[in-house]
Amino acid sequence: MTTYDVETIKEMQKKILELKKIKNAYIIAHNYQLPEIQDVADYVGDSLGMALEAKKTDYPLVVVCGVHFMAETAAILLPDKKVLIPDPNAGCSLADSITPEQLIEWKNKHPNAVVVSYVNTTAEIKSLSDYCCTSSNAVKVVNSIPKDKEILFLPDMYLGMYVREVTGRDNIHIWPGECHVHAKVSPSDIVKSIKENPDADFLVHPECGCTTSCMYMKERQKIDLHILSTGGMVKHIKSSRRDKFIVATEIGIIYRLKKETKGENKDIKPLREDMICEYMKMITIDKVLRSLEEEIYEVKIPKDIADKAKKAVERMLEIV
Ligand code: 13P
Ligand code: SF4
What we know:
CATH class of the largest domain: Alpha Beta
Strand content: 15-25%
Shape: globular
CATH architecture of the largest domain: 3-Layer(aba) Sandwich
Mean pLDDT: 97
Number of domains: 3
Radius of gyration: 20 Å
Bound molecules: 1,3-dihydroxyacetonephosphate, iron/sulfur cluster
Distance between the termini: 37 Å
């Protein structure tokens, strides 16, 4: 990755802001994006927020600064607009953990089950699903499905186990997929950090490998632990009176959290400095500029897939 000095970054940001006006373009970015990208975006948020924002946008050109499934979700919702991703290779290890063939085989084994797919999936997987959900509304989506209905939940097993625990349903089958960034967080990472920071509030993304242990520690040991989406973390820290927070998710969110709480003297630290999503970091400021200049790379979904996927995505947006 080329590194740029501050002046060059500022110059590129200026050009991006000019091009946005000239081309009537809108930039939607995820909380994990690089600071210089968050600063030129019109909206920064979690997966659910990004999809809600895409749905209501009137701009003819939308640049999604995030990973590929996020741009696909926007393209599904905006079939008449031009949706761009600055680097089409920005994938997601979690979305890659299930193929359409595997899902079809799984569905065949459970023909009466309702399929709930996390938004971190390809458009094709979404087209084979009944509902989509994100980490912020997964529990609500599952609770909206009649209790006697069997559910296939995919692809994140840690989020799936969390949802199973919170909803108390024993008819949820869970796909054994994981995100390589979050899965590496172990219960011992949290236990060690709690010992070192007894006065801190702990915010944990439900994709983390320690999620089930965290639920146990919260309920039984009354530890100040909160299992939240990235958007939930922003809301929590902004409204909390506490002044020390340890955050277990991709480290890009730290910039957003500090920016949102500027001047409030809040101490916000990542649980692990090595929680870096190399896919999210493939979106760089020079690529955003080039994307706007050349209107690349357009994300196009075949109509038959997009139409089916849209039903599952729309259901997700109705349950906020
Ligand atoms: P959020 O929906 O919480 O932003 O999570 C998206 C993601 O990819 C987490 O790794
Ligand atoms: Fe996918 Fe994990 Fe990166 Fe999120 S952090 S985009 S789930 S690989």
